[in-house]
Design a protein that fits this description.
The strands form two sheets. This protein has a four-stranded mixed sheet, with helices on both faces. A hairpin with a 2-residue loop joins β1 and β2. It is globular and about 60 Å long. The chain has 13 helices and six strands. It has 280 residues and is an alpha/beta fold. The N and C termini lie far apart (44 Å). It folds into three domains: 102 residues, Homeodomain-like (Arc Repressor Mutant, subunit A, Orthogonal Bundle), CATH 1.10.10.60; 71 residues, Methylated DNA-protein cysteine methyltransferase domain (Double Stranded RNA Binding Domain); 79 residues, Winged helix-like DNA-binding domain superfamily/Winged helix DNA-binding domain (Arc Repressor Mutant, subunit A), CATH 1.10.10.10.
Length: 280
Amino acid sequence: MAKTRQGPIETSCRLIDSAQTAPGLEELARKAGMGTFRFHRLFKQVTGLTPKAYAVAGQGERLREAVKGAPSITDAIYEAGFSSSGRFYEAVPAMLGMTPGRCRARGQGERLSVAIGETTLGALLVAASAKGVCAIALGPDPELLLRGFLKDFSKAEIVAGDAGFETLVAQVAGLVEMPERGADLPLDLRGTVFQRRVWTALREIPPGRTLSYGQLAARIGAPSAVRAVAAACGANRLAVAVPCHRVVARDGALTGYRWGVERKAALLAREAGHDAGSVS
C-alpha cells in the first residue's frame, strides 16, 4: 500500500495509543482529513482492525499490566483507561483470556493439569485447563520450565491429570517429534484480540513453510504492524502447536525464539524432512 495512504493511519494509531480514552471515529477521521466512512475503511485495510478494535487491543495490553501491578482492581480500571467498572468487567475476559481476579491472583481459582516429560529437543512441559492446552514449553531443564510456568500460575490448583490429559500430553510429545504431521489439539489461547489474530494466522502456515514477520503482518491485513506481530509471536505460550518457529527474518535468518533458536532450527529441519538429531 502506498506510503501516502499509510501515513494518516499510522498517525491515527499513535493518537489512539497515546490517549487515555480512545478518540471517537469522527474525531479520528477529522484529524486524518477524511470522511468517517473512508477513514474507517482505510484504517481496516491498513491495520486489519477497525479503529474500535484497535483501541480495545491496545487497552488490553495496558489492562494486563494494570491488573498485575495496581494496588486494587478499582485502580486498574482507571489506569487502563476504562470509564466505569461495568465497561471493565464487560471487556476483560476477551482481552485477558481469564477474569481480572484470576489474572491478578496468578491463576487462583483455576484447576490446571501439568506434566513434565522429555523429548529429543529437551524437557517438555504441558499444562491444560478445562478448555484445552494452555501451555507448551521446551527447554534444557525441567525444573526451570516448571518454575517459569508457576511464575504466572503460582496460585492455580494443580491437579492430577486424567486419562484424557495423558492423551493430550502424548499428542503434544508426538507433535514435537514430528511437527510436520500436525495435531488437532484443543487449545486454551490466552491473549489480546490482536495476539489471537496473529496466533490464528500462525496455525495456518503449512509445515515446511516459513513467512517473514512482514509477510505475516500482511497476511492478517496489518502490513504496518510488523513490530506488534513480532511481539505477539514472542508472547506465544504454546510451542509448536502455535508454530511461531515458522516465522523468520526478512532475509531468512532464524531470529529469536522463546524456546531457543537451536530448537527453532531443529523443528524447521524436521518439517523439511531432515534429521535434526537431538537438542540438549
